[in-house]
């Protein structure tokens, strides 16, 4: 959600004036004035609180006003300069201060680097009842299975959901769910269920989700937007997701790409995860992609 801590020289003093503690602040906390847009709300944080705790406090105070799809920078009021400056790298609250959250106007480029240790795969609603309705569903199943094989080879956790399985059936038999972390039923369109959030919290260092399944314009789109809102980078595998309508599918992929979500392909994902022909699992991944993935109707637009 927020931009990375900027690397600027440390400031003399805490900025904002006053000493630690202060009237009305609980023992062991420091008063801080949190400013966002035209708002300013006094609160307190634990002594020694850093960037992440400040961000959490901003969200608790202004979460209903913050556009989660924007990038932000945290700034500190510096009395030396009489204005706000970018929060120093490694900053920790030691005395009363004033901070603000500033939305960046420039478009930041998402690099989209993938590493196995910081990645989770999400397989969304690849169920039997969707087989006759989803465009290129056979191709999507084939590519989805390839991705799950890659996840097993690389030790990447996989979370699978099934939309109302009582009525829509279980995941198709061609998809091998051996070793997946979770298989969850849902009625909500987004995969971001409480159980999924809990599972992500248990996996240290998760930065990226590789997302595929159906339907692109409903469950995939809503899942991607929720994950981005929680600060997770999302990679949607275009050749492993589809809809009943190609129009819905293509417009959803275009919309998601405009929000900074990475729209990619299965082969690009798998090769980015190994990154080097000397990777110990490269040969196994190479065997998965020896035959090119089916085009699943994507080239009909070219």
Automatic annotation (TrEMBL):
Record Gene3D superfamilies: Isochorismatase-like
SUPFAM superfamilies: Isochorismatase-like hydrolases
The Isochorismatase-like domain, residue ranges: 119-267
Family, per entry: Belongs to the isochorismatase family.
Protein name listed in UniProt: Isochorismatase domain-containing protein 1
Native source organism of the sequence: Camelus ferus (Wild bactrian camel)
Gene this protein is translated from: ISOC1
């Amino acid at each position: 959600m927020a931009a990375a801590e900027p690397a600027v020289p440390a400031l003399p003093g805490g900025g904002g004036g006053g000493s630690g503690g202060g009237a009305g602040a609980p023992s062991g906390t420091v008063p801080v004035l949190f400013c966002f847009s035209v708002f300013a709300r006094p609160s307190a944080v634990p002594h020694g609180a850093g960037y992440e705790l400040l961000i959490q406090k901003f969200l608790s105070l202004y979460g209903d006003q913050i556009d989660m799809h924007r990038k932000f920078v945290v700034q500190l009021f510096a009395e030396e300069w009489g204005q706000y400056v970018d929060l120093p790298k490694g900053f920790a609250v030691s005395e009363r201060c004033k901070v603000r959250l500033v939305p960046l106007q420039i478009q930041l480029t998402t690099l989209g680097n993938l590493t196995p240790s910081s990645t989770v795969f999400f397989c969304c609603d690849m169920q039997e009842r969707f087989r006759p309705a989803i465009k290129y569903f056979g191709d999507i199943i084939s590519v989805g299975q390839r991705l799950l094989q890659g996840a097993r080879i690389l030790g990447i956790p996989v979370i699978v959901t099934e939309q109302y399985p009582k009525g829509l059936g279980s995941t198709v038999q061609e998809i091998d769910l051996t070793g997946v972390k979770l298989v969850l039923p849902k009625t909500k369109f987004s995969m971001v269920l409480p159980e999924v959030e809990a599972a992500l919290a248990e996996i240290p260092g998760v930065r990226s989700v590789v997302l595929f399944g159906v339907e692109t314009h409903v469950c995939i789109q809503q899942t991607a937007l929720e994950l981005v809102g929680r600060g997770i980078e999302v990679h949607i595998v275009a050749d492993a997701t589809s809809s009943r309508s190609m129009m819905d599918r293509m417009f959803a992929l275009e919309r998601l790409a405009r929000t900074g979500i990475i729209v990619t392909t299965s082969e690009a994902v798998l090769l980015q995860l190994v990154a080097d022909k000397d990777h110990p699992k490269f040969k196994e991944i190479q065997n998965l992609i020896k035959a090119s993935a089916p085009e699943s109707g994507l080239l009909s637009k070219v």
